[in-house]
């Protein structure tokens, strides 16, 4: 379950950062929109009935039920029907749907183009011509109840900052990281310079064995801390990808040494809260880097593979994961 959520979040992050790379490289406008009560716009294809709401039942006809013509929040088909309604609208207005991501739309406009990314009920719109972007906003408002948020400032908990003079875009989670540090009482911790020190030699042998040790670790919010770190890792902090991956191996039965290692990561974040991804005007050149260690995992002697993709000068896709098999070198 957690692996599927991470994969979904990674995909959303990748398309967002790829778009920001294009925006910075081409000096495009970046606007944000929000759809009010998005799921209520979907048209139902099935015959569905619901009981009259308590307090709103028609007197004398309390036994009757209502037939739904529009989707409601809570219906399993509501997200799908909303997407079909939105997709039909975009295609009627001559926007092309990206084959690799069906929530990405683009349209050639004169000598330029417009890109729209859909995040359920949030949208990012990028383009060189502000007039064409405003025209799209009017078209959307005529079909759906919209809220124009102006220049994009925040998406999915990530802060977007634009430096017009320097021509850069920054994607940061400083506010989120401060909340995580405060939640785990690490706001005043002494910062460290590395995500994980070399003296941590973690293995399953450090998992608790006695009832006393297990009782102590049961009171430690280890899984919660790892989950909070994973969100930062997936979105804007590739520098902690490896260590968070290592610490997540012990979520089922963490020991005191594992707890100390997680505290070390939080101390590292305490000293690097403002670290962020920076996008600037540059050639949109796609590059990738990949490497692996040799049997670095202590318990099963498996290797860890890591890769990073950059578009322009900034990373937009990264992974650090344990290999599923043991490689034999002859």
TrEMBL record:
<protein>
    <recommendedName>
        <fullName>Reverse transcriptase Ty1/copia-type domain-containing protein</fullName>
    </recommendedName>
</protein>
<dbReference type="InterPro" id="IPR013103">
    <property type="entry name" value="RVT_2"/>
</dbReference>
<feature type="domain" description="Reverse transcriptase Ty1/copia-type">
    <location>
        <begin position="18"/>
        <end position="196"/>
    </location>
</feature>
<dbReference type="Pfam" id="PF07727">
    <property type="entry name" value="RVT_2"/>
</dbReference>
<dbReference type="InterPro" id="IPR043502">
    <property type="entry name" value="DNA/RNA_pol_sf"/>
</dbReference>
């Amino acid at each position: 379950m957690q692996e599927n959520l991470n994969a979904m979040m990674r995909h959303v992050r990748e398309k967002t950062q790829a778009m920001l790379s294009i925006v910075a490289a081409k000096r495009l406008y970046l606007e944000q929109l929000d759809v009010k009560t998005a799921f209520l716009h979907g048209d139902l294809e099935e015959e569905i009935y619901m009981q009259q709401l308590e307090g709103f039942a028609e007197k004398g006809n309390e036994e009757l039920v209502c037939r739904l013509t529009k989707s409601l929040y809570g219906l399993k088909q509501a997200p799908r029907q909303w997407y079909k309604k939105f997709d039909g609208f975009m295609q009627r207005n001559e926007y092309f749907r990206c084959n690799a991501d069906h929530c990405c739309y683009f349209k050639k406009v004169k000598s330029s183009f417009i890109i729209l990314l859909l995040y359920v009920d949030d949208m990012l719109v990028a383009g060189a011509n502000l007039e064409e972007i405003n025209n799209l906003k009017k078209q959307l408002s005529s079909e759906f109840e919209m809220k124009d948020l102006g220049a994009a400032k925040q998406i999915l908990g990530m802060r977007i900052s634009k430096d017009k003079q320097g021509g850069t875009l920054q994607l940061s989670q400083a506010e989120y990281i401060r909340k995580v540090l405060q939640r785990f009482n690490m706001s005043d911790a002494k910062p460290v310079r590395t995500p994980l020190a070399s003296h941590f030699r973690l293995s399953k042998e450090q998992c608790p064995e006695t009832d006393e040790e297990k009782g102590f670790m049961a009171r430690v919010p280890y899984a919660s801390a790892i989950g909070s770190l994973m969100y930062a890792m997936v979105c804007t902090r590739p520098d902690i990808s490896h260590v968070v991956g290592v610490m997540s191996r012990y979520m089922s039965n963490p020991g005191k040494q594992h707890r100390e290692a997680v505290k070390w990561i939080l101390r590292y974040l305490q000293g690097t809260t403002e670290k962020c991804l920076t996008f600037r005007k540059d050639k949109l050149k796609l590059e990738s880097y990949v490497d692996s260690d040799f049997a670095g995992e202590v318990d099963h002697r498996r290797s860890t593979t890591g890769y990073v993709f950059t578009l322009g000068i900034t990373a937009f896709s990264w992974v650090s994961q344990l290999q599923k098999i043991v490689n034999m070198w002859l």
